[in-house]
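Quick start: read one record
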Amino acid sequence: MQNIKLQENDFKLGEAVPWPIYGKNGNLLLDQGQVVGSQKLIDGLLVRGVFRKASADEILKAEQAAKSAKFSLDSPFNVLDALRINLQRILTDISASVESDYNERLLKIAKVIQKLCFENSDAALGAIILDQKSAYTNIHPILCAILTELMTRRQNIPDEDRLLYIAAALTQNVGMLELQAELTNQTEKLTEEQSKSIKEHPLKSKEIMQGLGVVHEEWLNTILFHHERPDGKGYPSGLTRDEIPVYAKILSVTDIYSAMVLPRKYRDGFYVKKALQDIFLQRGKAVDEQIAQLLIKEIGIYPPGTFVKLANGETAIVLRRGTRNAASPLVLSIINISGQAIEKPIQRDTIHKDIYGIIEVVPRLEDLQINRDEIWNIGSK
């Protein structure tokens, strides 16, 4: 049965664990129902790389998500949930050196992401930006893959070719999976060993995927060069400008953007607009100028799932990217000027700036109960 690696947010201090917990060698460490009595115990378990076994329902969802040609995406959110499970399973298998056809498995996920973006990219982006519970390591590659698909599609790259760049986004960090999990909650300065591992991970990731049977140069080189910078200060090779493959430039900017907007232990969701501002300011240095412009054109200034304050005092959530103006998306007002939840949320077009224009981005409303299907009218089309 599928093993799911546990993250810190899977444990709640003082509460019973809802499933048996196993160590890397398969030994039972905590039985279902045992209480997690201290943070020291949690930290000790995480260091050991503990896992739980997936339920039959989770495995079924993962298998269904892989059959991209045989299902209808009535709810992109269910598909995203299954994608996370499936990708985590693949990455866990890679870490455990399980023999498998990773090329086929990853390209199946890439096809699902491609179909998802074609049918409802706004809802897919919104669901990820709204996600407060999933571990960063699980949703970061999915967001990078979605953004990569949207940006390469805008360049009219054929479907089959785009799959390779989506797969590169999903596997860009296989050379530092354990370190990435550590860094999610780390607020201290990087150690010398951590810095060294980060600088080496593009080459290591490429070598791992090559060793697993991936032969596509587009896939491998996108991984290898996605931390190169136009100003030559990137790694591992210090390439500059036109020396860097364009698809590595795309993955670079999606990686930077994703790292900025997704929630961390030490961040709230206040970074969506600032992330684009930072990327724009870094154009020509850390990121390619044309690729930075491409990202802004594709997702707009306020991506779906962003909470914003309107000129009339209402708080709204962005539904769809602006088609006429990158700074004027369609939103759904959910909190009135008195701070009360609106019983029947109202769509507002922020192109009407005097009344409904966006005046600021606000932090995620964590206590607000959100039905993703209802917000994006899934199933009512």
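Residues 68-73, 265-270 have pLDDT under 50 and may be disordered.
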